[in-house]
Amino acid sequence: MSAGAPRSAWAATPFIAVATFLGLFGLSTMLVMGPWMRTVGTVMLIATAVLVVTRLLSRSRVLPTLLAALAAAAVMVPLFARREDGSAHLLPTPGALADLGAALRGGVDYAAVTVAPAPESLELTALITAGTVALFLVAEHVAVSWRAAASAGLLLLIPWLPAVIFQHRVSAVALLCAIVAWLIAIAFARHTAGAERRPAVAGALTATAATMAGVLLVAPTALGGLGWGSIPRIDAPEGLETATRLNLALDLRTSLTTNSTTPVIVYSTEGPRPDALKLYSLTNFNGVQWARDDASPPARPADSGVLWPEPVDDWSERDRQRVDVQVLNLVEPNLPLPPSPRTLDIEGPWRYDATQDEVIGDGVTSRESSYSYVTDPDYVTPRSLRETQPAIEMGGDPDDPRYLEISPAIDETRVRDLSVTLTRDAETRYDQALAIQQFLRSVSEFTYDTSVSPSGGDAVSTFLDDRAGYCVQFATTMVIMARSLDIPARMAVGFLSGSATDADTFVVQGGDAHAWPELWFPGAGWVRFEPTPSIQTGLPPAYADPFANGTPIREEILSGEEVPSPEITAQAGNQATQEEDTTSSEVESAPVVPVWVIVALAAALAIAALAAWWKLRGHVRRRRAPTDAEGVWERLRESLPEPMRWQDTLTPHEAAEHVEAAVRTADAGLSGVAREALTRLANAVADERYAPAGSEVTIDELRSWSTTVLDEAQRADEGSRAAARN
Amino acid sequence: MTESLPTDDELSDVAEVTSRIRTSISTVLSGLDQAISATLATALAQGHLLMEDVPGVGKTTLARAFAASVDCTVGRIQFTPDLLPSDVTGVSIFRADDHRFEFRKGPIFANVVIADEINRASPKTQAALLESMQERSVTVDGATRPLPRPFLVVATQNPVEMEGTYPLPEAQRDRFMAQVSVGYPEARAEMAMLDSHDGHDPLAELTPVADAAALEKAIDVARRIYAAPAIKQYIVDLVGATREDGSLRLGASPRASLQLLAAAKARAAMASRNHVLPDDVKALAVAVLAHRLIVSTEARLAGRTAQQITRDVVAATPVPSAARDAAPAREAAVVRAT
Question: What's the complex ipTM?
Fold first, then answer.
């Protein structure tokens, strides 16, 4: 009688192990996933094997956990314990264990000083292995020894906590699999009163399938078909990564909620990194939101010489830099390009739009494509930009009035007064731009904050009041301030230059999406400025960095002390009725990921089919014809019409009386034959249950009695229903 | 302890004896079938009986009728506040002629002892009686003297609060296997009683229909009745349910489980059945369990009695078709191995 339950219980152990191991994916933003996971997996495997074998051989609660802990420690010694001279220990001697302890302490120290995501190191792997195995042993002990698998789930949640607290994106598949493993472990470890009851694996699988179906099909549909990207902060693992798109509807009223770590671009170059990679230009701003024009497809092929809005002199003599780009998960019709003149080497029907300064694919997306460009990152200097001043005064600006348009929703007077005050000592357009940029970058004036409060129709005024926002707010404000000084300006959307993975290789993640202002300088074209504070963007471009080139900028402006004159502040206070809030270039996941969808759906279907099969199997077994008095009795009870069914608090004889009374209520009562059959049946059941020798009635007799009773009972029930209808 | 199951002959003997006693009692008291059944079951299960009822409904008559129907010694103690323990158990007196103490047996040395209005005696005297009931022997002056077999105490007490009474505490009520309420007879039964008592005392006309040896044999048969694991499970469930019931301040004791099983076996024997049915347990549950329970204040204020609560518990407890897997046993095995 005790064979069933313990076997079920040890079966939970491997599932707890799987769930614990999958918890490592919850740390994916803190650790660089790598070969160390194999090491952890090996130690876990050994601990699991020891646990299962010990649990099969012993009924002790403590012994399996103890042995598994010893085994894990013994395995970790040759893996991690190192002598002073760096050689490995083979046997778990006291000295080896001391060295293992030293390795663990080293892991703690290492974790304390490294910046996430931490690269692999022996000490860190030792620490993670020890932590994972310890968590597993405790969770397994709680789940199997104490039959509290549900509570063990709380322990299994621990690795996911950093992701929850710091709002990192983690693998949804790993989380889902961990939950499924946990549910199955619960099913196996469940403390059943009847040992012969099967564990409720079917229930767990069905619940999982239903949940998955809900998450995959119902929820996105209910959310207006926003797709998988609308499930916040859960990202797919490598190989199933979501495609990434730039959100071009830059709305200054919404907070920045996603911080994607999906790699979108990888590029390699031997020179300095580009400042940024631009994809789009936006011109129209209605006070709270940027909108994109519907431009007609450009005619110029993308590989036809230097791509730049203005003619570039002596291109061949310039100091040029080559960059090889590979696009990973970016799904855009436009190519990421540096904000400087460049030549492009790419296959396919790509075309260049000089007005927008964009390279647009002809119905293709940039996903999975690779290309190279050659650019001159230093094509403008403070000097060259200052020298454009005569051309500006001669009317070298574009004709398009939209570059100077300020929406009526914006308090133009306030912006202009502020801009004029800031730039009253600037002699050239470049100095004006620099003054505005440095004002916005000043940490004593503005705070970088991804959450913004909702605003009314004038998000720029709200920003100038709140003094907090992120790239979209900063860039938009600089565009509007520039326009208020009659400088043609527009918004650029793209990515910052990302982070280095290698000496000359860089990866751009979804979270590097960015927006910045572009100001027009005749002869130089659209020039990027960087008003977003350095906490997010680092240094400004070299030509726009007053500290890099010694440009004479008034110190008051640099320190930000001068800037808002008292009257302007007062004015701002009076008009601070509208709040601004801003989205920065938010990354949006596009619902174009067939692999992920198909795999998930296939998994859901497979699990559902498995659950159905399991369920059906039990069903068939249960519906097999009863072979003893108990079975016949139970079947009779199930088959009787509702009012004649008896409660399980009745003894067989009481049940027989109940049936007889119920039939009498419905009809004239049972015939003598049926009454006798019912009594005999009840007697047989009572004998089988309670008599020392059991019942000697044959199954055929039992069935015939049951049929007799059932026929009369059903006839009586139908009769009483018919009578009720009439 | 594997004892042979009772044979059909033995069982029919028991049924015959008990049916004769039942008929005999019925000639004196009509309409009390349930009380008589409980009395007989208690007698066969070697328990003791507590009768609690208003005065004058026949408590003492029932006890005396039972005693008169069985050819055995009868002791009767009328409890009063000044009754001493030695008045119950007996006393050693000094015989001056041969210079030694001689034990003079008290009224408890009898097969059937009727303890009238037990709640009127002082607790000390009550305790003396209850100890003897439990031990089935009397210890006076260091000498232990066994009480005769069979030994049945039928105690009566009046529930109406009266001055100078000492209601039995719960711990002592637990010593009684069953409590029977006689209750007022139905109108027709009362008419019949008036007829039968008209002019003569039917109790005096009763002649014994069985002897102590037959009763002893019946007791032995009842002890050997088979109880399936499912029945024991059912009893454990019932008793467990009283311990968890919110309306009860005190549930039934493990002794209650034992006595309920013994009483159920006796009832099965009286029906000449060699095994217990849950019906037996159900029929006796109120008589065996109710008097041991303490009703919580809220439930008492709501007008519920221990009898009602016990009936509710019985109505709500499923009848097991088989003993459930003994999970605690497995847990114990696990603990032991460590």
Answer: 0.81
